[in-house]
Design goal:
Helix content: over 70%
Order of helices and strands: HHHHHHHHHHHHHHH
Number of strands: 0
Number of helices: 15
Largest sheet: none
Shape: elongated
């Protein structure tokens, strides 16, 4: 604890700066990801007796083995068609705006969340402070608007509570250094990775369960730790959600509006290519659709809670119909119908430039989906 605050400051910087440099392009985004990995490893590694000198090189060796294994499996999966190639994000014109951009706001939010988590964690939970910081980091990561943070924060907190409770109780029944704990860690990691696409709650439950088992492997277990870990998770989650809502908040509607605009442009390119008899960029359309799909659950929950009609969720569902119809156009769509769809799409794109919300786009998108379906169904 001699350098605890210096270490905390370095941790905050090491996890916040990689977010800030995303604005410099995809290459810097990858650099930032690599930069943050050592700090995440330090944060999640239990404080145990230092390894002997002859064990020092095992960490980079294991990292190299893990990297090589992932690279080989990914390459083989893509060659056999099991895993599709991940297309680069289509180049979209970025409007010039005054003030901080999203990456700068997210970096500041992360720095504030981690700083508050470090202080409150040390003051309230003493040596169990990492659970506050880990939860704040997990909940605040991948901020796609304050509504998205709230929804995913609740999922992550709920999943983390369940995963930690179960794993803490299990780890307390295993001997330190148990091989069964290592096997359980790998099984849980596999299941969490598989289920992550369905809900962040599964991922949060898996990761926190792995951490609890890892601590138990090093002899840091016991039923008395459960309450402290649960409190730490609740505090960390509350900090992350509060900071995301009140410190330079990113509006969910702005994120959705931007991604809808990107998807409409991708749709325009597909329709134009079909009219010109060229091969359309369906991969780019799929990428834009997946990016928008990430924020769709937030708006569906918003519709269930507020009962507003039409809500942004209705516009997003109509846009999903547009994408499905564009993918089903075939090689010989009706050119006249496709021209009408292009004009309808142009009207929607003009409308989104003049609107602060995507909810008013619903009638236009429904009309566009119908025109695309009719153009594709023509014999």
């Amino acid at each position: 604890y001699r350098h605890v605050w210096l270490g905390g400051a370095l941790l905050v910087i090491g996890l916040s700066v990689p977010i800030a440099i995303r604005r410099m392009g995809p290459a810097w985004t990858r650099v930032g990801t690599i930069m943050s990995l050592p700090f995440v490893a330090v944060l999640t590694t239990p404080a145990v007796t230092a390894p002997s000198s002859h064990d020092t090189w095992w960490a980079p060796v294991m990292a190299l083995i893990a990297y090589a294994w992932v690279a080989i499996v990914t390459t083989v999966a893509r060659r056999v068609g099991f895993l599709p190639d991940a297309p680069e994000a289509p180049a979209m014109p970025v409007p010039r705006r005054t003030g901080l951009d999203a990456s700068a706001k997210m970096a500041i939010q992360m720095a504030v969340s981690l700083s508050a988590a470090l202080i409150l964690g040390h003051v309230l939970l003493d040596e169990h402070w990492p659970w506050v910081v880990i939860t704040a980091f997990v909940v605040c990561s991948g901020n796609r608007g304050r509504g998205d943070v709230l929804v995913k924060g609740l999922q992550r907190i709920g999943g983390a509570l369940v995963g930690t409770a179960i794993a803490t109780l299990v780890a307390g029944r295993l001997d330190p250094g148990s091989h069964l704990a290592i096997v359980s860690i790998f099984v849980i990691l596999g299941l969490a990775t598989w289920l992550r696409a369905r809900s962040y709650a599964y991922w949060a439950a898996g990761i926190t369960a792995v951490l609890a088992l890892l601590y138990g492997f090093f002899g840091l277990s016991g039923d008395d730790l459960l309450l402290r870990r649960v409190i730490g998770i609740l505090i960390g989650g509350a900090i992350a959600v509060a900071v995301s809502w009140f410190v330079l908040p990113i509006r969910t509607r702005d994120v959705a509006r931007r991604r809808v605009a990107n998807l409409l442009q991708a749709l325009q390119e597909v329709i134009t290519a079909r009219l010109d008899g060229a091969e359309p960029d369906l991969a780019g359309l799929g990428h834009a659709a997946r990016e928008l799909g990430i924020v769709t659950p937030t708006w569906r929950l918003h519709r269930r809670v507020t009962r507003v009609r039409p809500s942004p969720a209705h516009a997003l569902e109509a846009l999903e119909d547009c994408v499905a119809a564009a993918l089903d156009l075939g090689d010989s769509p009706d050119r006249a119908g496709l021209g009408e769809a292009a004009r309808s799409l142009g009207a929607v794109r003009r409308q989104i430039r003049d609107s602060d919300s995507i909810a008013p786009l619903t009638p236009g998108l429904q009309d566009l989906a119908g025109r695309l379906q009719r153009a594709g169904n023509t014999p």
